[in-house]
Design a protein that fits this description.
The structure holds two protein chains of two kinds. Chain A is of the alpha/beta class. Chain A has one domain: Pyruvate-ferredoxin oxidoreductase, PFOR, domain III (Pyruvate-ferredoxin Oxidoreductase, domain 3). Chain A has seven helices and six strands; from the N terminus they run βαβββαβαβαααα. Chain A has a six-stranded mixed β-sheet, with helices on both faces. In chain A, helix 4 packs across helix 5. Chain A is globular. Chain B is of the alpha/beta class. Chain B folds into four domains: about 220 residues, Thiamin diphosphate (ThDP)-binding fold, Pyr/PP domains (Rossmann fold, 3-Layer(aba) Sandwich); about 110 residues, Rossmann fold (3-Layer(aba) Sandwich), CATH 3.40.50.920; about 160 residues, Rossmann fold (3-Layer(aba) Sandwich); about 60 residues, Alpha-Beta Plaits. In chain B, helix 1 crosses helix 2 and helix 11 crosses helix 14. In chain B, strand 17, helix 19 and strand 18 form a beta-alpha-beta unit. Helices cover about 35% and strands about 20% of the residues of chain B. Classes of the chains: A alpha/beta, B alpha/beta. At the A-B interface, helix 1, strand 2 and helix 2 of A face strand 8, helix 11, helix 14 and strand 20 of B. The structure holds thiamine diphosphate. Thiamine diphosphate (TPP) binds next to helix 4, strand 15 and helix 17 of chain B.
């Protein structure tokens, strides 16, 4: 936390739901009566590219982008993306990584390979990262699309935002008819150790 | 009430609240959501449309303004190049009802072919430029822009950047208010730009600029935030936010009006601070004008004209300038460089079959701007030029006429791009007796920018059914005698048609017929899978560049990886199955 501003970096791969997750987080912060900004770049990145979303909230937020190395929390939707961005974590920051792997086409050229031992490498750089197989939990809950709500649940534990506000926003922004399921998924993530 | 809005949504909201009645645009990142928002939420009050290109978008918006409606033409930065012809002379005619042109610039080229700084267009045309620094300002500045436009009889350029367009912030919502500017009133000396009248208008433009300078001096849009006077910063747009956070103790002159500058205000600000800096993204636009007044100032020496700014590089600039302690600079821990994820053609993209066939033909592909441009990246690497929308046809023709290249060049462009600025190139090629082959990858949508309709599709932005352009008839009417259609999912047929047309000693057009599988709605067929035992790890399917195909853990006797298909994302287009020499790729049994 820097000058009372909380910085959350959410990263992943196009199509994973990073943008919706950051939208929900920003909305929750706003509903807490805080100033909030969120920034990302759409466009080419959605065609399987890297997606990053910066969310900042506090009394008054200026820059929409988080300064380098000052993220209070990083939420990575994909394992290698966790490794890519872990350096942005600030002192005492919380690192949360979904262990799902998305292997890009470029590996088929043989020129690049997907990194190995990612969890160990992340652990060396981030105090005590939280790894979670959100895909598995989502599947158990009956819908793999719940990954992003589960991850928000995990993230919510390290942010000073009310559970009630979270649930309100999640139920409102969830696709029709999935409010209850998303609520369950969020709480499942929230109790993840 | 407050809402979280992106800069684009806030601009749309501003158009609605401040009485806008007409909006036209051609899609282009990062500007596209402005019109999408208007059409989605405000279409009962504001007419919104996709024009065929930016020049037309501006021309109709000008017509609407002459006709009494507060109007908007929105485009990405390069769109203003296309609309530059009406833009430059529009400065002379002025407006009737308020007229706003939004230019969405893209520093860092997140999704563009260059990073031009369109503030120069304002100076070039003597048109005032407003530069919001937040979503709230994006909305508020629409009000000021309409008022300036009507008061000074000038169009107004609102210049935003990707970081403004696509960042969300809190915006206070208000009610809609309209103005009455009457209808079109003939005024030949004002609206008919022949030399005699245009000369008089140019004189008025020069006088108008002087009045705008006075306005800028007094306007609340240019504000001084006094603080410590050792460092004074002139800044605007999102750069203001970075400067404010990087130098919380400095005094800041924030420019909401990026052109013309309030030079008296800047001079007096400069005289009160020990050292004056300009922090601006891209070119040294303010800096050059300020320095030309003989004011001592530093800017681009410390803050690059290359790529977007951010807090870190602004801090670094001030450290290098000796006015900020270097302890603010962080050294990030060294992390492993993780493999890149370049954007690729989607699974099932109809452009893939085309790229594979062109590659097999061994021709050069003069490319254009659209999803098919991604076919220029490995492993396909089958796009050999890409300059601006519509250029593919001119390039192929020029290479042919230059006569020094043995391989033939085939022009490739999409339906939206062909309509935007390919028709003229094709007509010119026919007229000048070319023998090029033009491929129109008609996926029936403008896909790259997120799936917008265009004049060859079935509905308008407001959701009404409309008459689509018939591309085959259009090409025939331009004098193309050989127009053929192909299904790009059928590799053999695609290859043989392309081969025949490339060999033909006459201009020809080949049009694909498969729709985009992502827009307007997702299309999926039964997925395919790899029979590992039959796969010989030849890599043929890897070379079609499909994101659903990856290397399997299994290898052949030489240690080469076999293939694996992700059946969750495979759409069953069969391109990989068609290139597989051993029939190892088969439909998943239901
Ligand atoms: C002058 C200009 N306007 C807008 C754009 C933004 N833009 C990039 S690609 C594209 C449309 C491509 O549509 P189409 O040619 O149909 O190809 P598709 O993406 O559907 O394959 C647009 C509008 C641009 N690059 N240049």
């Amino acid at each position: 936390m820097n000058n009372g501003t909380t910085n959350v970096l959410i990263v992943g791969v196009g199509g994973q739901g990073v943008l919706l997750a950051s939208e929900i987080l920003t909305e929750v912060a706003k509903n807490m009566g805080l100033d909030a900004k969120k920034s990302e770049v759409h466009g080419m990145s959605q065609r399987g590219g890297i997606v990053t979303s910066h969310v900042r909230f506090g009394k008054k937020v200026s820059s929409p982008l988080i300064p380098a190395g000052e993220a209070d929390a990083i939420l990575a939707f994909e394992l290698a993306e966790g490794l890519r961005w872990v350096g942005q974590l600030g002192k005492d920051g919380v690192m949360i990584v979904n262990t799902q792997e998305i292997i890009p086409v470029i590996t088929t050229t043989g020129k690049f390979s997907y990194p190995e031992n990612i969890q160990e490498k992340i652990s060396q750089l981030a105090g005590s990262p939280i790894f979670i197989d959100a895909f598995e939990i989502a599947t158990k809950l009956g819908n793999f699309r719940l990954v992003n709500t589960i991850l928000l649940g995990v993230l919510s534990k390290s942010l000073a935002l009310d559970e009630k506000k979270w649930l309100e926003v999640i139920e409102r922004m969830a696709p029709k008819g999935t409010g209850e399921l998303n609520r369950k998924a969020f709480l499942e993530g929230r109790k993840y150790e | 009430m407050e809402m979280l809005l992106s800069g684009n949504q806030a601009l749309a909201r501003g158009i609605y609240e401040y009485g806008g009645e007409f909006a036209s645009a051609y899609p282009g990142t990062p500007s596209t959501e402005i019109l999408e928002t208007i059409a989605r939420f405000f279409k009962d009050d504001v007419y919104a449309e996709w024009a065929i290109n930016e020049k037309v978008a501006l021309e109709v918006a000008v017509g609407a303004s002459y006709g009494g409606a507060r109007s908007l033409a929105a485009m990405k930065h390069v769109g203003l190049n296309v609309a530059a012809d009406p833009f430059m002379t529009l400065s002379y005619t002025g407006v009737n009802a308020g007229l706003i042109i939004v230019s969405a610039d893209d520093p860092s080229l997140h999704s563009s072919q260059n990073e031009q700084d369109n503030r120069f267009y304002g100076k070039f045309a003597s048109i005032p430029v407003l530069e919001p620094s937040t979503s709230q300002e994006a909305k508020d500045f629409v009000k000021h822009a309409f008022e300036i436009s009507e008061e000074f009889d000038t169009p107004v350029l609102i210049r935003v950047t990707t970081r403004i367009c696509h960042s969300k912030g809190l915006v206070t919502i208000g009610e809609r208010k309209t103005v009455d500017r009457g209808g079109f009133e003939p005024n030949i000396e004002k609206y008919v730009m022949v030399p005699a009248y245009a000369t008089k208008r140019h004189k008025l433009v020069i006088e108008r600029l002087e009045k705008l300078k006075d306005y800028a001096e007094k306007s609340k849009l240019n504000q001084i935030e006094w603080n410590d006077k050792k460092v004074g910063i002139v800044t605007g747009s999102v750069a203001y936010q970075y400067a404010k956070e990087a130098m919380p103790d400095a005094s800041i002159l924030k420019l909401g009006i990026g052109f013309p500058l309030p030079m008296k205000k800047i001079k007096s600000f400069a005289s009160e601070v020990d050292q004056l800096f300009v922090v601006e993204e891209l070119e040294g636009f303010y800096e050059e004008m300020i320095a030309a007044e003989g004011i001592e100032v530093e800017g681009k020496k410390y803050f690059s004209n290359f790529l977007e700014l951010n807090i870190d590089c602004v801090r670094e600039g001030f450290v290098n300038a000796g006015v900020l302690d270097s302890s603010v600079l962080k050294t990030l821990p060294k992390t492993e460089s993780v493999l890149p994820r370049p954007p690729v053609l989607c699974s099932g993209c109809p452009h893939r079959g085309l790229m594979v066939s062109l590659k097999k033909l061994g021709v050069y592909t003069t490319g254009d701007i659209g999803c098919y441009t991604l076919g220029g990246l490995p492993p396909l690497s089958q796009i050999h030029t890409c300059l601006c929308m519509g250029a593919s046809i001119g390039h192929a023709f020029g290479i042919e006429k230059a006569g020094k290249t043995a391989k033939k060049a085939v022009a490739l462009l999409g339906d939206s791009t062909f309509l935007h600025s390919g028709i003229t190139g094709l007509a010119s090629a026919v007229f000048n007796k070319s023998r090029i082959t033009v491929v129109i990858a008609d996926n029936k949508i403008t896909a790259m920018t997120g799936g917008q309709d265009n004049p060859a599709t079935l509905k308008t932005l407001m959701g009404e059914k409309t008459k689509p352009v018939d591309l085959v008839k259009l090409c025939e009417s331009l004098g193309v005698e050989h127009v053929r259609t192909i299904d790009p999912y059928d590799l053999d047929a695609t290859y043989s048609v392309l081969k025949e047309e490339v060999e033909r000693e006459d201009v020809s057009v080949v049009i694909t017929t498969r729709p985009c599988m992502l827009f307007p709605s997702k299309i999926r067929d039964i997925p395919y899978r790899v029979v590992t035992e039959t796969c010989i790890a030849c890599g043929a399917c890897f070379r079609v560049g499909c994101p659903s195909i990856s290397a399997a853990p299994e290898t052949n006797e030489k240690g080469k990886h076999k293939s694996l298909i992700d059946t969750n994302t495979c759409t069953g287009c069969t391109i990989c199955a068609q290139v597989c020499p051993t029939g190892a790729i088969v439909k998943v049994e239901s």
